[in-house]
Every structure is written in C-alpha cells, then in structure tokens.
Amino acid sequence: MSTADTGPGSSVMTMPAAPRRRTLPAWAIFLIGVVAVVGVLATTSYLTGKPALTSSLTMQNTVTLGVPILLAGLGGIWAERSGMINIGLEGMMVLGTWGAAWGGLHGGPWVAVLSGALFGALGGLLHAIATVTFGVNHIVSGVAINLLGMGVTKYLAVLIFEPLSQNPRDSPPIEQFETFSAQPLGDWLTDLENEQRVVISDVAGLLGGLVTRVSPMLIITILLVVGTYLVLWRSRFGLRLRSCGENPVAAESLGVNVYFHKYVAVVMSGALAGIGGAALVLGSSPSIYSEGQTANRGFIGLAAMIFGNWTPGGTLAGATLFGYADGLRLSAGPETVHALLYAAVISAGLLVIWQLWRRKWRTAMLAAVGAVVVYALYYASDELPTQFLPYTPHIITLVVLALAAQRLRPPAANGVPYRRGEGD
C-alpha cells in the first residue's frame, strides 16, 4: 500500500501495481513443445514395442503428407488475416493438382510448381471477385469454388489427359524433383536408429527422416512459412493487411485501400493452396494428377490454421500433427496406429499434472476422465479397425479442434461483410 499526494495536506491510498506475468518467448515454447512430443512418442514406442512410431520412414511420410496441408493452412492465414473466410481452399488445391500435372508435362517439376500456383491463384481471384467486389457470402462462394474446382479439373482431365494416358481420371507421369540427403549425417543417424537405444534411437529416427531424401518442395515450403511471417508480421504491408481483418472501417479511415489488400490476400491464398496441390502431385509415386487426389486436405489445412491460432508457427505444428497421423498409417499397420491411443493417455496424464500445478481442478478432472476412457479403448482392442485407418487424420482433426477451441482468437472482422465508405 502506498500514498499519492493530490494536493496540500491530502493524500490518497493506492494499491501497488499487480506484478506482470512473465511469459516465455515463442521460441522457448516451441522447443518445450518439441521436447514434450518427442518424449511422449519415445515413451510410447518403448512401452508398446512399436519402433515405427519414431522411424525415419514415418517421418519422411510425415513430411510428404504434411507439406500440402501446411501450404493450404498458410493460404488460409493470408485470406483470414485480411478478414476473408476461404473454405474454397480445397477447390483451389484441386485446381493446383491439375495445373501442376499440365505444367509438369511441358516443363518439368519447377514449371509444375509455378503452374499449380497460377491455377490456384485463378481460383482465389474468382473467390475475391465474388466476395470482395460483389459482396457474395464467403461461405457460399467458397463452396462454389470447391464444386467448380472439381468440375473444371474433371472436364480438363477428360479433354487433355485422357488422349495421353488413356485414363480420364489420371494424367501421364511427370518428372519428379531430385532428392538429396545430408551425408554422412544421414548414415550416422540411421546407424543410431538401428541400434534401438531408448530415446537416442527415437530422436535419431525422427531427425534422420528430416535429412534423408529431402525434396526441394520442402525447402520451398519452409521459405514460404518464413516469408509469410516476415510479410504479415514484420512489414508495413502486412500490418495494413491484418488491420483489414481486425477493423476494415478504421483501416480505411487511415488511408488503407481495403479492397486492394483483400484481393492480394485471397489471390495469394489461392496460389499457396495451388502450390499445395503441386506438392501432392510431385510427392506421389508415380507423380501424376489423379481425380480425388486432395482427399479433403484443403479442409484439414483450414483445421491446421485454426489449431495454430492463425499463425504460421502454430499452423506448422498442426500440419505436422495431421501429416504424422497420415504418415504413420502408410508406414505401419493398424496395430501401430492403435498405439497412438497409448500416446494420448500419456499426453492426458501430463495435462492433468500441468492443470493441477495451475490449480485448474475442473480441467484436471476432465483430462483424467478422458485418459481413463482412452486407456479403456486401448486395453479393450488390439488394433484399430481397418475401415477407420484412412480417416485417422480427420478424426484427430476433430479431437484437436475440440480441445483447442477455448484458446482460439480469430481476426475480429473475419467473415464480416465490408463495403467501401460504410463507416462514413
């Protein structure tokens, strides 16, 4: 308690200022999260006897399948940070798959990436014209883009690819990127992984998957993640674009061309989704366009963006999670995917300890109940039904979004209709 003079012979009692809570920097939180995830996976691998949980093959599949999801999520960030809901990412990604195959046939993998971006950007431009210029509801326009993307690519595949591949659903194979490995680091990590040492081999397997058979597509994606962060959070243009998503009327009053920034954001959103489609084509074996190739990854990219709280780093974490679930399904059998239930039990136990330390009794109790239920499911079955395996990423998407819903903070004007001069 302290006193403050307000005049001759008088004083007012004031309360001391409340101490500010110290928060960890973002990089420290990221490192803690990585260590926690690796620890949970290593513990699960040891206790269940499933080394595929942390194998280099699983990590390679995680990268291959997570990159398209991450690119779609980045596209969602660009659009929604400007106040534009873009559920048309799936359709733009579909356009990108066809464009990548067409460009790859004529000019190789680099042209495939550029062509995929161009076709995705065209879908974004159409979405921007409908929503920004004509004021069409964002959801309605996004659904229309999804339907249009599937219809247009199916028509073009029959028109152009069928005479070449003799198949109306597939394109001829295109040239892939040449991959490279970090040697001799990769061989050393492989040796450590094969020794099956607790924790050490798990870490070696995960790192080995990141430095073995690396595609230029991964490098492009990393650069786009960093570029998105620098442009949207470290540039004047990005500040203006994000202001359009928070309060477009106030941004307009300060001289910001809201329409221009929304157009750029949505077109860039489509281009990123189109590059995600190109990543799907170039990451398949053989590298071809195939009808239904995206398998709803555009929607999973949106989920990764929401899980990541509309930030590039958080979206990277979400895409890695969903890509890992899909990659594990491909690299191992249903028994190994079943072991993820055990990992969920361990994670729930850690959550209980954390919430008890924070004295969040209700949350700790709910987490404990969830851990018991999940462990009962794990104990009662030996493997997941094969019918559920293709939908593992979708199930994890629903669970993660349900758990993360309380901490989300979307842009304030996201999806709100805007007309120039309405604040006058």
TrEMBL record:
Compartments it resides in: Cell membrane
InterPro entries noted in UniProt: ABC_transp_permease
Keywords from the UniProt entry: Cell membrane, Membrane, Transmembrane, Transmembrane helix
Natural source organism: Actinophytocola gossypii
Keyword set includes Transmembrane: yes
Membrane-traversing stretches: 24-47, 59-78, 85-105, 111-136, 143-161, 214-233, 339-357, 364-381
A Pfam family per the record: BPD_transp_2
Membrane topology type: Multi-pass membrane protein
This protein's name: ABC transporter permease
